[in-house]
Amino acid sequence: MGADNKTYTVDEALVYMGFGKFQGLILAYAGMGWISEAMEMMLLSFVGPAVQSAWGLSSHEESFITSAVFAGMLVGAYSWGVVSDSYGRRKGFLTTAVITSVAGFLSAFAPNYTSLIILRCLVGVGLGGGPVLSSWFLEFIPAPSRGTWMVVFSAFWTLGTIFEASLAWIIMPKLGWRWLLVLSSLPSSMLLLFYNVVPESPRYLCMKGRTAEAFQVLEKVARVNQKKLPPGMLVLDHDTGNPIPMESIVLLSEEVHEADKVEKIEPKVECFSSVLILLSPKLLKSTLLLWMVFFGNAFSYYGLVLLTSEISSGHKKCAPNAVVLEKTENANLYRDVFITSLAEVPGLLLSAATVDRIGRKLSMSSMFFLCFFCLLPLLYQQPELLTTALLFVARICITGTFTIVYVYAPEIYPTSVRSTGVGVASSVGRIGGMLCPLVAVGLMHACHQTMSIVLFEIVVFLSGFCVFLFPLETSGRELRDTLSSPK
């Protein structure tokens, strides 16, 4: 009878069973979505110049293709976060996958500039759902290894960027930009093929009062991992209670009736009230600091991606009486982007080595400040080899901080607003991505390298300082389900 009085939470069940084959399958599915987003973002480096040449666009019209994607992501990141917190993680990433794959495929057949802008903006709306997948995967990972496995999840982004650069290198010279758009839309379609077998997050189900369904998901995890669940009854948390005895778990065919009988633990989070929760006294400081870090990460990351070739060739473009060998530079574009993308591999390894050992905050702040010092010499023109090496290390650091902030962000929010919190923060980051090419790259085109680097230095330093101000370290801590849950 003693075992009947025992209770356990979703976190405790996951720790008890450990990371196994089930989480590996979840990782593969979520990773495919991350590859899709990385490919759709990376192709902007290739499609813009190709479309400009084919349709005779101005440089402003070319840059607007990139801005349209970021504008769509700005809307999508918030919208899909709210949808997944209100209606479930599965519905959130199903909708995003449909929009991304369909709009991405149709982009290849755009007859004119206006239709291409509209379709790429819709692709951005779909890509804004990326944080939903990361939150969903996070909620299946045991707390002690959460940081490491979230870094492994981030490796799929790097895989996507390298694969897209390789694909462009092969496809663009022979088949052109339309074929690149078609092939880049395929990973999003793969999410739809396996959607029916993908489970809902047990943490989300438990938070919504659907404890019986959460128990069925955990049973499936145990069965696939060849482990057993802890003895006792599943509860939302030990303070709230709401236990569901094992013998009362109903069949799937009856779960609708069970859901009607179970009292909700927390009122349904509405679209606008969820944002107010993010700005409530308990979360306000974390939210504002997180927005600044996401903005700084996106501004710096996409800036380094776009500016690597600009800074490296800045001596030739801005030298007196310089002659730009445009044809040669275009021929080397795919190779250069591929090589610089490889900097993300050591960035991921550095993240994996530090995120659980020294914590999220110290890892992020150290990398921000190392990036700051790497960019300092570039205030003045340096030899090309040194410039490339400094940019390579800076890219490593920013990849590391971007990886870790996507680990940290879902951990500071409760399950009730987790996807919304990460989605809104990601939206703020998209603003940084939109401003970067307009400001920093514009300065480089005007031969103002020093002013451009000063701007990067200010953003990077402030981001590192904001990390120091984060109110808590989340390494090894259990995830909260509600604001009232114990920290």
Describe the structure.
There is one protein chain. Helices cover 72% and strands 1% of the residues. The model is unreliable at 241-269, 312-316 and 320-331 (pLDDT under 50). Strands 1-2 form a two-stranded parallel sheet. The chain contains 22 helices and two strands. The protein is mostly helical and 487 residues long.
Give the topology.
Layout: E1 7-8, H1 10-17, H2 21-42, H3 44-55, H4 59-87, H5 89-107, H6 113-127, H7 130-138, H8 146-175, H9 177-184, H10 186-193, H11 202-207, H12 211-225, E2 233-234, H13 255-261, H14 271-278, H15 284-312, H16 314-318, H17 326-341, H18 344-354, H19 360-375, H20 384-412, H21 418-445, H22 449-469
Parallel strand pairs: 1-2
Helix pairs in contact: 1-12, 2-7, 2-8, 2-10, 3-4, 4-5, 4-6, 4-21, 5-6, 5-7, 5-9, 5-10, 7-21, 8-9, 8-17, 8-18, 8-20, 15-20, 15-21, 15-22, 18-20, 19-20, 19-22, 20-21, 21-22
Which features would summarize this protein structure in a list?
two-stranded parallel ribbon, globular, mainly alpha, 72% helix, 487 residues, 2 strands
For the sheet with most strands, the description reads: 2 strands, parallel
Strand arrangement in the largest pleated sheet: 1-2
User: How many whole angstroms does the radius of gyration measure?
Assistant: 23 Å
Distance between the terminal alpha carbons, to the nearest Å? Answer: 31 Å
The number of distinct β-strands equals 2
The residue ranges in which pLDDT falls below 50 over 5 or more consecutive positions are 241-269, 312-316, 320-331
H/E series: EHHHHHHHHHHHHEHHHHHHHHHH
Oligomer state of the chains in this structure: single chain
- Helix/strand/pairing category: mainly alpha
Strand content: under 5%
Tell me, briefly, the overall form.
Answer: globular
Number of helices: 22
Q: Report the mean per-residue pLDDT as an integer.
A: 76
How helical, in percent, are the residues?
Answer: over 70%
